[in-house]
Amino acid sequence: MCHIKSKDNSGTNIEKFQNDLTELVNQAKKFTDKIIFIGLTKVDELKTMPVSWDSTRFYDNDYVSKYNLVIKEFCQDNKLMFIDMLDLINKEDLEDGLHPNSQGHKKMFERIKIFIRQKII
Fold first, then answer.
1. pTM for the full predicted model
2. Pick from 15, 40, 51, 93: most CB atoms within 10 A?
3. Domain residues of the chain, as ranges?
4. What are the pLDDT digits (tens) for 43-62?
5. How much is the average pLDDT of 4-19?
6. Tens digit of each residue's pLDDT (9 = 90 or more) over 62-81
7. What Cα–Cα distance (Å) separates residue 98 from each residue in 27, 56, 57, 81?
8. Coil, strand, or helix at residue 34?
9. Angle (deg, nearest 10), helices 61-77 and 14-28
10. Rounded distance, CA 15 to CA 90, Å?
11. Distance set, CA 91 to CA 37, 41, 100, 112 (Å)
12. Rounded to an integer, what distance in angstroms lies between the CA atom of residue 87 and that of residue 105?
């Protein structure tokens, strides 16, 4: 996930992020044509501005939403599957404000399982 160095300075610009997505897909296509992107999850900004383990890394929901939209549009443009997670995870589902805990992973698993059953199987 993209972090921001400060409120006005993204650690990864959109163009590089899009190029990285393209490279990731090119690598994955060497192994399969069934590529699924899992969307980003919201964060608990009280714990991620900055994160406790690195005072130079910040994550906020504006940037999460912005980069999630980049992934979603990239998938649409490239006819790739995308599972949106932005509305799924709550603060209670986050271990450290950024990473899902077991409850959060269970919610994600259920959404992914339903998607795969409907779209692939």
1. 0.87
2. 40
3. 4-119
4. 999 999 988 888 888 889 99
5. 75
6. 999 999 999 999 999 999 99
7. 27, 15, 11, 24
8. coil
9. 50
10. 29
11. 22, 10, 9, 20
12. 14
Length of the chain: 121
Cα–Cα distance for residue pair 68/74, rounded to 1 Å = 10
Q: How many CB atoms lie within 10 A of CB 19?
A: 11
Q: Give yes or no for a contact between 96 and 47, defined as CB atoms under 8 angstroms apart.
A: yes
Return the bridge partners of 47, or none.
Answer: none
Query: What pLDDT, on a 0 to 100 scale, did the predictor assign at position 52?
Result: 86
CATH topology of domain 4-119: Rossmann fold (3.40.50)
In angstroms, rounded to a whole number, what is the distance separating the alpha carbons of residues 11 and 109?
Answer: 29
Nearest 10 degrees: Cα torsion 90, 113, 66, 89: 0
Q: CA 93 to CA 100: how far, in whole Å?
A: 6
d(CA 35, CA 38): 10
